[in-house]
Amino acid sequence: MKMAQAKSLQAYAKLSSADTLTNMNSTKAGLTEAEVKSRLAKYGKNVIAATKKQSLLKVFLTNFTSMMAILLWVAGLIALMTGTPELGIAIWLVNLINGVFSFWQQYRAQQATSALQKMLPSYVKVMRAGQTNKILAADLVPGDIVLLNSGDNIPADGRLLSADSLEVNQSSLTGESITVNKETDPQTDAALKNAGKYAEANLVYEGTSVVNGSGSFVVLATGMHTEFGQIASLTTSVAAVKSPLQKELDILTRQLSLIAIVIGALFFVAAVFFVGYPWPKAFIFALGMIVAFIPEGLLPTVTLSLAMAVQKMAKKNALVKHLNSVETLGETTVICSDKTGTLTKNEMTIEKVWLPTDDYTVSGTGYEPNGIVTKAGKKIDLAQEHDLLQLIRIASLCNDSAIEEKENHYQLVGSPDEGSLLILAAKADYDLRDERKNYPRYNELPFDSKRKRMSTIHQNNGQNYVFTKGGITEVLSCCQSYLKNGQVIPLTEAVKKEILAKNDDLAKEGLRTLAFADRILQTTTNLTIENCEQNLTFVGITASQDPPRENVMEAIQRCHDASIRIIMVTGDYGLTAKSIARKIGIVKGADVRVITGDDLANMSDSKLKENLTHEIIFARVAPEQKYRVVSLLQSLGEIVASTGDGVNDAPALKKADIGVAMGITGTDVAKEAADMILTDDNFTSIVNAIEEGRTVYNNIRKFLLYILNSNMPEAVPSLLFLLSKGMIPLPLTVMQILTIDLGTDMLPALGLATEQTEPGTMKKPPRKRTEHLLTKQIILKAFAWYGLLASIISIGAYFFVNHLNGWPTTALATDGTVYAMATTMTLAAIVFCQIGAVFNCRTAEQSLFKIGFFSNKRILGGICFEVILIACLMYVPFLQKLFGTTGIQLQDWLFLICIPLPLIIIEEIRKKMIRKA
Ligand code: ADP
Ligand code: MG
Questions:
Q1: Ligand 1 pocket residues where CB is under 6 Å
Q2: pLDDT higher than threshold 80 for residue 761
Q3: Is the pLDDT of residue 898 over 80?
Q4: Nearest-ligand number for the alpha carbon of 514
Q5: How close is the Cα of 556 to the center of ligand 2, in Å?
Q6: Quick one: which atom of ligand 1 is closest to the CA of 469?
Q7: If you measure from the C-alpha of residue 541 to the centroid of ligand 2, how many angstroms do you get, rounded to a whole number?
Q8: What is the pTM of this model?
Q9: Which atom of ligand 1 is nearest to the CA of 622?
Q10: What span is annotated as the signal peptide, if there is one (predicted)?
Q11: Rounded Cα–Cα distance for residues 573 and 10 (Å)
Q12: Region 62-66: what's the mean pLDDT?
């Protein structure tokens, strides 16, 4: 068997499509399952192996080569060399544990994001053993016949077998974004030479996408054998772009580190010259300060909490592609949303049919043909209703969808609009099967969202007919006459007005209308849109109900509470859009501006900007026009999320700060351009994702506040020691500072990063993009409030021991147990202050009891961990020796246990006062 990998792709370009098929041992009907199996075994899965990932070992090692880690290694070394080996080992130990912990966080974040990619499988339509199937793109093999439609990604390299106005975007390979026309004819040597790389008109390449038209091809190469795969194997890992938050954190960490080093240097100088410490001892002392102030663990924790948020969003039907988007979601100020399918269910049921002669009512809902068509309250007999019959004929034959009956249940294959028309036909007892035979279709002018019409050409009794359906204005503009009791009557302006007025009445009720027209065609040549869609005879209108999605009204209310605007951008008719927008609460005022695509095309930027400051709906717009709306909103300073599903939506999706693609109805191209994909196509999922985005940012702040809290009580003891010129022995040793910063604080802090959404999160306006993570408020709260309280309490604990057992210097002179006890108490008091603080950090303004005092299990676990850790330090002899700690007495424990509660009560009172103000 000769196969693609043996022959160059260009060689196939010269063969006819039939020869290519024989060469590939395939047929138009496709491969058999057995053949697929054996080829899959031979050629492997059709996947592009991920570009080289950063090796785990390298990631692991970076955690031990950060500035802080290096400082600690050096400090440990100095301690070892200057006669305090326990201190040196302890410092190294703490450094090691901290590094492993950071690595574990990074690893988990990576796992979480890579798991997401698996949730986004891509499917392709193939022909196998004579049947069309939807299969995973990974299961394609050379020789498979793939069917392409507008918006599809091309899943492998191949030779075209058919191409119908096929245009392909090959920018992923060539970098040029102009689309390339494709055809099936064999290429000559000369043509190939002129064309250059990837330009062979009858070849398609993996990684490119269909922009227009349709076609089919036989697969020549899959996976790493494709051109795209070969390029991918050459490029090494792409550096991940840092998100704004990560950049800010980088800067923040650097700034805080700089401050830490300055403080450390000052302490060093003071310790040497003021207290008279030898320099190695002073260095380690100063190092304590540096470690206290460096916000270690900030970056990995933030990355992990972003990754966990992404996981959470995925469970709520919003797949986010990059961590950046999580942040942007929290800043979103405007959502530009489609209507059909996103805000509404996209389950159309026709309720009314209007003809210039008669009105009809249709009963029943859903895709079950249970219901009847009535006229003036009586069931109709279709044979007596000539005009209605013609409307139903157009509706069912100018139609690409089908309703399939499967085990007593009806299933729609195709679009809901068209499905509803088929149901109407069934309810009117129309014999579709017979009519299909009588009116064979031999051409189609497919629907496109710019023209908003579609037409099909049929033959009956030697006559050729054009059947057209589409939006009312779009159809009526092609009509010159109308049908009345079987007669074709010229369309006067008065009748036109009457038709439009009737349509508007229906649209005002929120019904979606479709108009139908036909004509007899004299020729069968030159069947262009211009030639066919003119001089039509208007037949009638159908009006269908598309109910709002469940919960969409609440979601819209939540957006309004959260000061997020919603702008409906739809292809549907203005009055229908307005009625639905009002029904679901998107617009409320009296002055709602409905701007159509035509208005938009003729509107200056400044006028549009002015309009954008009002309640506004965009109706009858083409997807291309979304781009302009999005970019003008952005120029007004808005952060825009925009939805879309088609090929033409891609530019707007890319332009938007958050491009949202529909997972179910969306094309591959739209999904590729988007930042977020909704697996349920539901507007509510966008709002949930925004809430999650806000929550994450708030949690990172809570986390930051908490780890900054302990800086003050860690610094004050050293300050006391220095200011008293060493009269007051150091109340907290360097090792003990390390214990808090790199030990006890870790797990509770991580718990804060996973806090549930705080009530009221969606009652505030979005965060400003310019707002910094670390605000003055947080600094004040951390240093001048929580930090101050904790300093007073911990120093109090130190002196409490002295008060009971005597001044430590005297005792220190004898055996040092009182000193050890006093410092242990300082340490333990800080830890217990942090227990209070972690509860206080859980909310910014809400009462703790509202979110449930014990509702965060991770925090409770973290607290247990830190209490056990501190108890170990107190009672395990080996650790006692390393950390200069000792066992404490019962009254000391009582003192400690009493610390958190008053702290929490004071904060609850403060928060209550804030809520009142
Ligand atoms: P939307 O779904 O938001 O209404 P579309 O671009 O899908 O936007 O459709 C625009 C309009 O084109 C619809 O409101 C309808 O009037 C018309 N339309 C939609 N689908 C079809 C179709 N298959 N055939 C004819 N007309 C259609
Ligand atoms: Mg649509």
A1: 338-340, 415, 417-418, 447, 449, 452-454, 469-471, 514, 570-572
A2: yes
A3: yes
A4: 1
A5: 21
A6: 25
A7: 18
A8: 0.86
A9: 6
A10: none
A11: 49
A12: 84
Question: In this structure, which topology does domain 352-545 adopt according to CATH?
Answer: Calcium-transporting ATPase, cytoplasmic domain N (3.40.1110)
CA 338 to ligand 1: nearest atom? 3
Ligand nearest to the CA of 339: 1
Identify the residue whose tokens are 């196939």.
12
> Is 1 a residue whose pLDDT tops 50?
no
Annotation: CATH topology of 60-107+242-312+695-753+774-916: Calcium-transporting ATPase, transmembrane domain (1.20.1110)
Closest atom of ligand 1 to CA, residue 346:
2
The sign of the CA dihedral 858, 863, 868, 872 is: positive
The DSSP bridge partners found for residue 662 are 678
Cα-to-chain-centroid distance, residue 541: 39
Atom 15, ligand 1: which residue's CA is nearest?
471
pLDDT at 5 over 60: no
Q: How far is the CA of 417 from the centre of ligand 1 (A)?
A: 8
Q: Report pLDDT digits (tens) over 670-693.
A: 998 899 999 999 999 999 999 999
Look up 338 and say whether it is catalytic: yes
Give the position of tokens 């034959």: 397
**Residue 418 alpha carbon, nearest atom of ligand 1:** 23
- Contact yes or no for 515/538 (Cβ under 8 A): yes
Candidates 144, 152, 157, 338; catalytic one: 338
- pLDDT on residue 405: 80
Token digits for 788? 């101050």
User: In angstroms, what is the span from residue 452 Cα to ligand 1's centroid?
Assistant: 6
Q: Give the tokens for residue 277.
A: 């410490």
Ligand nearest to the CA of 449: 1
Q: Give which of 836, 829, 695, 833 is closest to 762, Cα–Cα.
A: 695
Q: Could you tell me how far CA 59 lies from the centroid of its own chain?
A: 26
- Residue 681 region by backbone torsions, left for phi larger than 0, else alpha for psi between -120 and 50, else beta: left
pLDDT tens digits for 464-503?
999 999 999 999 999 999 999 999 999 999 999 999 999 9
**CATH class for the domain made up of 319-344+549-689:** alpha beta
- Ligand 1 midpoint to CA 646 (Å): 12
Identify how many contiguous H helices and E strands the chain contains and give both numbers.
Answer: 39, 28
Q: Which architecture, in CATH terms, is 4-47+118-226?
A: Distorted Sandwich (2.70)
pLDDT-based confidence at 251, cuts 50/70/90?
A: confident
Nearest to 422 by CA among 412, 409, 407: 412
The answer on pLDDT for 52 being more than 80 is: no
Residue 503 vs residues 318, 354, 366, 541, 544: alpha-carbon distances, Å: 37, 9, 23, 7, 12
DSSP state of 7: S
The closest residue, in CA terms, to atom 2 on ligand 1 is 340
Beta-carbon neighbours within 5 Å of ion ligand 2: 340
Q: Quick one: which ligand is closest to 342's CA?
A: 1
- Atom 27 of ligand 1 has which residue's CA nearest to it? 470
Determine the distance separating the centroid of ligand 2 and the alpha carbon of 77, expressed in angstroms. Answer: 69
Residue spans of the domains in the chain: they are 4-47+118-226, 60-107+242-312+695-753+774-916, 319-344+549-689, 352-545
* Residues whose CB falls within 8 Å of the CB of residue 865, separated by 6 or more in sequence, listed in order: 744, 747
> Which of the listed residues 398, 400, 417, 665 should we mutate to test ligand 1's pocket, taking the one with most ligand atoms within 8 A of CB?
417
**Whole-angstrom distance, CA of residue 364 vs CA of residue 343:** 22
Condensed to tens digits (0 to 9), the pLDDT of residues 333-383 reads: 999 999 999 999 999 999 999 999 999 999 998 888 889 999 999 999 999
